[in-house]
Amino acid sequence: MIFSTLVSTDELARHLDDPNWIAFDCRHDLAEPGAGERDYARSHVPGARFMHVDRDLAGPRSGKNGRHPLPDPEVFIAKLGAAGVDNGKQVIVYDAQGGAMCARLWWMLRFWLGHDACAVLDGGWGKWLREGHPMTSEIPVIRVATLHATARDGAVDARFVLAAMGSSRCLLLDARAPERYRGDAETIDPVAGHVPGARNRFFRDNLAPDGTLKPAAALGKEYESLLNGVAPGNVVHHCGSGVSACHNVLAMAHAGFAPGRLYVGSWSEWCADPSRPVARGANA
Fold it and tell me: Bridge-partner residues for 91, per DSSP?
């Protein structure tokens, strides 16, 4: 059996000594990029490797391609192999941000590289700690492997989004916090607002109070309402930089929907070009 959306903390605990399971710690703070790595050095799931959102899960920035453009696929595939990932490995990813960071690695493995055996730890690091599962500061000894993969066309660019604006057949779904979506406050990017016609689905609305993902049936009803007749495969997910948007992809997949596509550049790329239109307010 492979896990391709969520895996429980108990299930991961049972497989800590399984050489065919590999965990990645993706803890990250957008305001303090070094915090996640420091936290990992202090304590992490035994055997877990660390992946940095800026350094590992993103490529070079040009100032026009967003804050987290995709890395070169061959470089990233080699990096996964160096971490011990091959085509037979079950990969588990986690963070302490409700899944908003590690879902990027989940999306990259599953929908960009086609490695289906990748799942997000439901409840993340917080649930792991609350339940008293093992933790360590030891850096794992890694046996280098080879991952055979080819990058797929799972993402869209700004031209695609511009063409999709106003289309009744496409749903642009923004995963940022409501105040950032509306343009009331913008603490990261230089321009406030959102892509005209985009709807807001804050990624944290996918979570239950305990930090786990809501049940599939509940998410199904919520996304069905958002879709309003649009085919799930025609959803374009975006956020500030193509990271937390992957959480909405995860929620839709957990609810049994086709995942839609990711606008990797997201708002940080969109607003870098002053010729692109900007909307403010609720669902404008």
Answer: 22, 118
Structure-block tokens of residue 151: 């990058």
pLDDT class for 154, splitting at 50, 70, 90? confident
Residue 145 has pLDDT above 70, yes or no: yes
Please, which residues bridge with residue 279 across strands?
Answer: 194
What are the tens digits of pLDDT across the range 202-257? 999 999 999 999 999 999 999 999 999 999 999 999 999 999 999 999 999 999 99
CA–CA separation, 276 vs 195, rounded Å?
Answer: 9
What's the pTM value of the predicted model, to 2 decimals?
Answer: 0.97
* Domain 155-270 in the same topology as domain 6-130: yes
Instruction: Spell out the domain ranges in the chain.
Output: 6-130, 155-270
Give me the active site residues, please.
Answer: 239
Alpha-carbon 249 to chain mean position: 8
- What would the CATH number be for the domain defined by 6-130? 3.40.250.10
Concatenated DSSP letters of 54-122 = TTTS-----SSS-SSPPPPHHHHHHHHHHTT--TTPEEEEE-SSTTTTHHHHHHIIIIIS----EEEET
SS3 label, residue 207: strand
Quote the pLDDT of residue 169. Answer: 94
